[in-house]
Design brief:
Blueprint: H1 2-7, H2 11-40, H3 46-67, H4 76-96, E1 98-100, E2 103-109, E3 112-114, H5 116-134, H6 142-146, H7 148-161, H8 166-181, H9 187-207, H10 215-225, H11 236-248, H12 273-306, H13 310-334, H14 352-387
Helix pairs in contact: 2-3, 2-12, 3-14, 4-5, 4-7, 5-7, 5-8, 5-13, 5-14, 7-8, 8-13, 11-12, 12-13, 13-14
GO biological process, one term: peptidoglycan biosynthetic process
GO molecular function: lipid-linked peptidoglycan transporter activity; peptidoglycan glycosyltransferase activity
Subcellular location: Membrane
Length: 388
């Protein structure tokens, strides 16, 4: 049985994830070597060495998640633990959190930083997928089947927004929306949710319109309209990102030869790493990243469609939507399509919390795929033998 299960794993997903992560490791070194010395007075390979350590830890976490049967996660004890720990982590930030980039979003543990909101994304996916899978028999009863799980989502989004971290809150909201739309709920109830959301949000926005966004966030909205209008201040990040992207052309300037990373492009190894990839490796480098991320997203949707278990199907939808949404927000921000939000590019940007959370998510997705393939390959064969 173990041999059959190992044969059923989706190794294409694993290979793409590993290639993306290793590619990201190389690009973190290229994008951060000047920044580490100039900004922090650290060795040029400081961020590379840290990312390598994160990558080793992430692979171990991925293996654990890939081997852990996903169906066990919908037990009430595990769900209760996930909900309590995610809320506790977010609320503890306001007492013990470390402020960086005008947001109190991190715990500082020794020389490491941990961002609870990253792990809350996967907590939301597991919780919503499990609850709506259990409610399939009465999914269209609004008060009993639709509303109760949303209390947790609203509370999570509020706690993330007041850090303030609108980028992560938006991702969590959109992940929840993707799972709800895929849960089997009828359009009458979905329309009710939309109307309630508008009725609740509108007065809040009107009353708090001056306090809802920080000065820096309002400037980001203005910068999208015309970043070159004030390129030394509000448009500084986006202007240099666009210059990096435009300089790369088809083939790029060559690995390690970016000009914008020489102090012109802030956070070149985190939020703006794709701009460095575009400048150094051109269209080829950008295409590799986008096609690889696209493959993971589409493969996740394919797994969801094949899975006959509602819980597994919703997990796959949640994970693939998370990676797709986060990729779009990052790429849209650095290209001026949408305002900058400080969202990392999955598997590529520097950061331990993001990499660990994505590894857990990919481990779960691979586990769901394994059960789908196992049932398809071996259970059907056994049924045919019994019939014969």
């Amino acid at each position: 049985m173990l041999k059959k299960m190992l044969k059923s794993y989706d190794y294409s997903l694993i290979i793409v994830m590993v290639l993306l992560s290793l590619f990201g490791l190389v690009m973190v070194y290229s994008a951060s070597m000047v920044w580490a010395v100039q900004r922090y007075g650290l060795p040029s390979d400081f961020f590379y060495q840290r990312q390598k350590m994160f990558l080793i830890g992430a692979f171990i976490v991925f293996l654990c998640a890939a081997l852990f049967p996903y169906k066990m996660m919908k037990s009430n004890k595990i769900l209760g633990f996930i909900v309590v720990m995610s809320l506790f982590g977010l609320m503890s930030l306001f007492v013990f959190g470390h402020i960086a980039g005008n947001a109190q979003s991190w715990f500082k543990i020794g020389g490491l930083s941990l961002q609870p909101s990253e792990f809350t994304k996967i907590a939301v996916i597991i919780y919503l997928s499990a609850v709506y899978a259990k409610k399939q028999s009465y999914i269209n009863e609004f008060n009993k089947g639709v509303v109760p799980p949303l209390v947790y989502i609203v509370l999570v989004c509020i706690l993330v927004v007041i850090q303030p971290d609108f980028g992560t809150a938006l991702i969590i909201f959109l992940i929840a929306a993707a799972i709800i739309l895929s849960s089997g709920m009828n359009w009458k109830n979905i329309s009710k949710l939309i109307m309630i959301g508008i009725l609740v949000a509108s007065p809040v926005v009107l009353v708090m319109k001056d306090d809802l966004f920080t000065k820096e966030q309002r400037e980001r909205f203005e910068a999208v309209k015309n970043p070159f209008k004030d390129e030394q201040n509000t448009g500084f990040q986006l202007t240099n990102s666009l210059l990096a992207i435009g300089s790369g052309g088809i083939n790029g300037l060559g690995l390690g030869k970016s000009i914008q990373k020489l102090g012109y492009l802030p956070e070149s190894h985190t939020d703006f790493i794709m701009a460095v990839i575009a400048e150094e490796l051109g269209v080829w480098g950008v295409s590799f990243v986008i096609l690889s991320l696209g493959y993971i997203v589409l493969r996740g949707i394919y797994i969801a469609l094949k899975c006959r278990d509602p819980f597994g199907s919703l997990l796959a939808i949640g994970i693939s939507s998370m990676i797709g949404i986060q990729s779009f927000i990052n790429l849209g921000g650095i290209s001026g399509l949408i305002p900058l939000t400080g969202v990392p590019l999955p598997f590529i940007s520097y950061g331990g919390s993001s990499l660990l959370q994505l590894s857990i998510a990919m481990g779960i997705l691979v586990n769901v795929s394994m059960f789908v393939n196992y049932e398809e390959k071996y259970k059907k064969n056994n049924e045919k033998k019994i019939v014969a």
